[in-house]
Amino acid sequence: MKVGEPKEHIEHAHLEVLEKTANTIRQDIIKMLLEAGSGHSAGPLGMADVFTALYFAVLNHNPKDPGWSERDKVFLSNGHITPVWYATLANAGYFSREEAVGTLRKLNTRMQGHPHVGTTPGVENTGGPLGQGLSQAVGATLATKMDGKKNWTYCLMSDGEHDEGQIWEAIMFAGKNKLFQLTGIIDRNNIQIDGMTEDIMPLEPLKDKYEAFGWHVLEVDGHNIQRIIEACQEAKAIYEKPVIIIAHTIPGKGVDFMEFEYSWHGKPPRPDEAKKALAELRTLKGKIVSEHE
Amino acid sequence: MNDARLNPKLYDSEVEQVPTRDGYGDGVVALGEKNPNVVVLTGDLAESTRANKFQEKFPDRFIECGVAEQNMMGIAAGMALSGKIPFVSSYAVFVPGRCWDQLRVSVCYSKANVKVAGAHAGISVGPDGATHQALEDVASVRALPNLVVLVPCDVIESKKVTIAAGEHKGPAYFRFTREKTPVITTDETPFKIGKAEVFKEGSDVTIVACGPLVYQSLVAAKELEKEGISAEVINNHTIKPIDKLTLASSAKKTGAVITVEEHQINGGLGGAVAEVLVENYPVPMERVGMPDTFGESGKPEELLEKYGMSVKKIKEAVKGVLKRKN
Fold it and tell me: So what's the ipTM on this one?
């Protein structure tokens, strides 16, 4: 498939390819976390479908020219899920999958433990300390608006990082300035390090809060690639407001023993666990496709 | 005299006094005229930071962020990554005080081309009291890699600092003061980031100062001359990258050094100079500045007197360090 122009609609065959790509990205995530010996498992697996939708169907970008001035930009605010970013960028052709899988978190690597702009091709922002990504995405969108350009800015956030005040400062600012060229996507997996988000610091009603701050809100099944793509397209049709897509996801998606377990937030699989995870993901290839038939 | 080409009326009792923040307003306007990518942000402090001068001239390139400094710093980073040259304008107690993490991660680590202007720095903010007297800002940013740190001594140097920071590629922090302070320099006074300037030559002791207290240092040096003490005065406007050569050469010549700054004695100019001298040319040294305490309300001159940043204290420090000189 061609990386570039957003598709008018997703044909079934095309969707199948995307779902296989998402599965490959999940396998690469498991492999790179095993190789690295540290890192986060649940978040990257949970966001594999959203990343696939963005980089293989939504974004206007060029992996052979990461600095292309007309590109759409992706900012990752919750930088700890960067294994999914690296795996996606590698599969999209920004660098080799060997580099992504083999060098994550190692000395002299371009695959830093948390994303760093300038180090990794395709990485647009530095992130990790939570709550900082949306402000940067807002700044990029503002620059786009000032220059009269038409490219889009996407900001991926975790639900847990909405504990940070800075996120709400940015939400307020984007609402005030009607930054319609900004689309936020929240990984609503309901977990954070110490437990469930609604126990640690309740976020609901999240939709109402965004609407009260002047945003247009869409909610999707974060594992339904077709719905994610449709939501991103719908977001482009909203001219008055920035759009937030609340993507409901399953942490650890695709690996049974990781799903819904917040204990998998911040640790990598051991060799035996990785083997089991990869086996599950390989047999899942058919299963995911059948879900949408 | 030397080639510093200072204000000829510097030592007049009626020396002209202007707040250094005025130079920031003029500087960003001058930059804005030359470069359409220059943008100015403020956190509800347009007038008192003098960012309003830019706002009046370039309303489309002026961004009001409200009282939200963390977001403002992040927006600036995002704009810089998209090719803009953002100037973040607030009080030094808030930038970097309120958003040091954003300055570290979003700006410095990313090498985002953001300029941070901390206004109302120092104890001379006066009546507002300790909460608003930024006396730790230089120490708190000096440890950050990729950041240039500048402290202009008067309104003319403020404008030069603003323009030089705008033309420098990479993050920069600079601080200004609220109150009117003497005009020390002229348009002809040399200024270059990273180059300390000898404003008065001397042979017995070196006074390294930054900010408006350069004036008090020069007055102290002039008075010491009558007592037979020849003091060299260096305007060390660039705290980072610091001018090791000028500092070490002067220490070698005079054999004793004091530092003078409107900042905590720990971690600011005094700390930076001490690091340079210890490694390059150790000599007896004393630091004049805020003595590791918080300030209080009062008139600027009363506070400078009470907390030991006056001409009298500078002279005492000089005499103290001379006693320790071999």
Answer: 0.95
